[in-house]
Design goal:
five-stranded parallel sheet; globular; binds beta-D-glucopyranose
């Protein structure tokens, strides 16, 4: 029925009208066809909330008072909750707010794999593990799309670094592509039923992703059956013929010369001259109309008749006489923004996202009753983060800083002193305004590298020392000291990667000096990607990992520090010791090798990045080569303890698919004194893994809440992929028979029970 309607409306459209629909006619909207009632599609970024309004044609914020929104914790934080329900709620907030702001498509979630710890956009992504990414992304997509707004998973595919993001060509073996980089996208399409997807900036095997037939046609459309809409990243299309002939449905970009976009007048000419078929254009328009119908943006009817145009053959004949129109539907969800519910959801996600990395001698939680003098050190205690990071920036309705959270939690009986501790130079605002436009400028791409971010001149060094000395001096006078440092969106930012994993702004010196004065100081690191803690992690007794954790982040952190909330976040990525521990970096493969003159003739790239580590990404790599990490994947402590008992494994044949499913059963008990949540993780690996086999892979997980003394039997279904491997000859996954070890634990390294299973 829907397809028929679409065909009928399509046949009414002129070539020029169709062209109008497939490219931007504003920075965040497509062209409308008013004659037939077809509206523009309205987009908005992004993963942490709905972005502020811009001028239609310029990257100039309108400065309105009505586009403040709920600020959700970043996607890494959502992943750190390991809580599918919260991921769904995060999606629901995003969807409702997008709809409330009149948007059709929210450009989120970002589900690229965190391949290198220094990628500037890691905070927008979820994990280094494809299964965990999919498990968080799917409910988030469902949450968004229940609100008549389309999620748009991005950036398809292999957009795993920001350095030269438009001009880096990714070469990767098929197996790693299929086992690591594509599964989350596949889950988004098949399980999440995502309605739209964004093509990435980079090249894949010599062809830009938005023009890439293998990615967008062979895999996405044919293999996975995606019939939603593909939009280019902003400025990611480079050739009319390649983009016109099927792959991408809508071209968006960053400049206001809309008629000159590759898929505007140049596409019109290409079709008129027979270089691109009109059939290819029709496919794009159909994908767009299908999306509009699914979002209840329009219905398709015969004018004057008000009846569904595609009900019967006679009706179709009758249409010959009347004009078929797109008409507004009245039953589309209206959405809402800045509700108390959304703020509550942001708080709940933030609470469960905080990861207690280390807690020797039960340093935490701090006891607020006895506290009279508290010293809070660190720029991040006071810094607000919502408005940074690139296209993920938003205007938060409010943002509770850690310092505010701590003060409101403690009340007036405790004197809270703040010492900045390290100096962050104010931003040059003139660079910011046109950031989005210049970020994709070919010549300027190099300037976006990180090297120049921080000044190391004498004046800065002196300032750092002054702030450090002040912090150390005050530290000895306080009952307790909390140091809140880490990164900010000068570092966790779109368009640039960090050059290394070290803490900026002389923070290592600061933390060492404070710990020397106060060995009991609590260290909080707030960041969206790993930092090196080598210089001080052994001397610190308590280390807490906090993310860009949304508008309620400061409250959540204070609740954890003072024991009102028992931390339950688990790292969705490893925190390696140093950057050189990562193979791709140690071999100088990252960020890519300059193209030879010959290669340049074949493709429009600057660099080629070979993913030579194959499937050994993140923990798969550290496990394989026995490389220690600062904190392993899945790690996260609690104020209580859990015991695991009675592991058993059961196989079931699913009658329909004739696939074997493996269920794991065990009992978990809260053996401590406070209520807490535990994420039980199951890792699967061959008893004797071959050279090309991972030692362990995440096969399933479940988060449960238990009161002191309480026990619960849980069952976890293992994902079939952990027993399979990509078979290039078959062009599909094949089960790998053999003896497997099923390891159950509280993190990758903290395995409590295990058993063998023969497949
Ligand atoms: C980013 C996308 C974003 C788009 C629109 C691009 O620079 O890569 O993630 O959705 O801009 O703002």
């Amino acid at each position: 029925m829907t397809e028929k309607k679409i065909e009928v409306l399509l046949s009414e459209l002129t070539l020029k009208e169709k062209i109008r629909m497939v490219h931007g006619d504003g920075l965040f909207r497509t062209g409308a066809v008013e004659r037939l009632g077809i509206p523009s599609l309205k987009f908005s970024d992004g993963p942490i909330g709905v972005r502020q309004e811009f001028e239609n044609d310029y990257w100039i914020p309108l400065g309105n008072s009505d586009d403040y929104v709920t600020y959700n914790p970043c996607s890494s934080a959502v992943a750190a909750t390991w809580n599918r329900k919260l991921a769904y709620e995060a999606g629901k907030t995003l969807g409702e707010e997008a709809r409330g702001r009149g948007k059709d498509i929210i450009l989120a979630p970002g589900i690229n794999i965190k391949r290198v710890p220094v990628c500037g956009r890691n905070f927008e992504y979820m994990s280094e593990d494809p299964y965990l990414t999919g498990q968080v992304a799917v409910p988030m997509i469902r949450g968004i799309q229940e609100t008549d707004v389309a999620a748009c998973v991005k950036h398809f595919a292999l957009n795993n670094q920001e350095t030269e993001r438009l001009w880096v060509n990714v070469e990767i073996e098929e197996r790693a592509l299929r086992e690591i980089y594509l599964p989350a996208f596949e889950a988004a399409v098949k399980e999440g039923k995502v309605l739209s997807l964004m093509g990435a900036y980079n090249l894949f095997r010599g062809v830009h992703c938005c023009e890439n037939k293998m990615l967008l046609e062979d895999i996405l459309r044919k293999e996975w059956g995606f019939d939603g809409m593909v939009v280019s990243d902003w400025g990611a299309v480079h050739h009319t013929e390649a983009a016109g002939e099927v792959p991408v449905d809508v071209e968006m970009s960053v400049t206001d010369n809309y008629d000159d976009y590759y898929m505007a007048n140049p596409l019109l000419a290409a079709i008129q001259e027979g270089r691109v078929t009109e059939d290819a254009l029709d496919k794009k328009v159909k994908n767009i109309l299908r999306l509009m119908l699914r979002l209840k943006m329009i219905d398709i009817r015969t004018e004057g008749n008000k009846k569904d145009c595609s009900l019967s053959e006679e009706k179709a004949d009758a249409n010959q006489a009347g004009t078929v129109m797109a008409v507004n539907r009245t039953d589309r969800a209206p959405g809402c923004y800045n509700t108390k519910n959304h703020q509550q959801t942001a708080l709940e996600i933030a609470r469960e996202s905080i990861v207690l990395l280390k807690n020797e001698e039960e340093r935490l939680p701090l006891k607020p009753e006895k506290l009279r003098k508290l010293l809070v050190i660190g720029d991040n205690a006071e810094r607000l983060h919502a408005s940074g990071g690139g296209s993920a920036e938003i205007k938060a309705l409010y943002e509770i800083s850690p310092l505010m959270g701590i003060k409101t939690q403690l009340g007036g009986n405790c004197q809270v002193t703040f010492a900045r501790g390290y100096y962050v130079a104010p931003k040059d605002v003139s660079i910011e305004v046109n950031w989005q436009k210049t970020s994709i400028d070919e010549e300027k791409a190099e300037d976006n590298r990180m090297e120049s971010r921080e000044k190391n001149d004498q004046a800065t060094v002196a300032k750092q020392k002054e702030l450090r000395d002040e912090a150390v001096r005050l530290a000895s006078q306080a009952d307790e000291v909390i140091l809140i440092g880490g990164l900010n969106h000068d570092y966790d930012v779109e368009g640039a990667d960090r050059v290394d994993m070290s803490l900026p702004y002389a923070q290592d010196e600061l933390i060492c000096a404070v710990l020397e004065a106060r060995p009991d100081a609590v260290i909080v690191i707030k960041a969206g990607s790993p930092v090196s803690m080598e210089r001080w992690m052994d001397s610190a007794k308590a280390i807490v990992w906090d993310w860009y954790s949304g508008m309620e982040g400061g409250n959540a952190l204070a609740e954890v520090l003072f024991g009102k909330v028992n931390p339950s976040g688990k790292l969705p990525e490893s925190i390696p010791c140093r950057l050189s521990d990562i193979r791709t970096v140690s071999l100088e493969e990252y960020p890519g090798v300059l193209l030879t003159e010959k290669e340049k003739e074949k493709m429009s790239a600057h660099l080629t990045e070979c993913y030579q580590e194959g499937i050994f990404v993140g923990y798969r790599y550290y496990e394989k080569y026995g490389i220690p990490t600062q904190f392993c994947f899945g790690h996260g402590l609690s104020y209580t303890t859990f015991a695991y008992h009675n592991l058993s494994v059961k196989r079931e044949q699913t009658p329909k698919k004739k696939e074997q499913s493996v269920w794991v059963f065990l009992e978990v008990e809260n053996t401590g004194n406070v209520e807490g949540k535990e994420t039980v993780q199951i890792y699967v690996g061959k008893e004797n893994p071959g050279v090309n086999e991972p030692v362990k892979q995440l096969g399933g997980f479940e988060k449960i809440s238990l009161k002191p003394g309480e026990k619960e039997i849980i069952r976890i279904l293992l994902q079939p992929l952990v027993f399979s491997c990509w078979d290039t000859e078959k062009n599909g996954f094949s089960v790998v028979p053999g003896k497997y070890r099923i390891s159950v634990g509280s993190s990758l390294k903290d395995i409590r029970l295990s058993c063998q299973l023969e497949i």
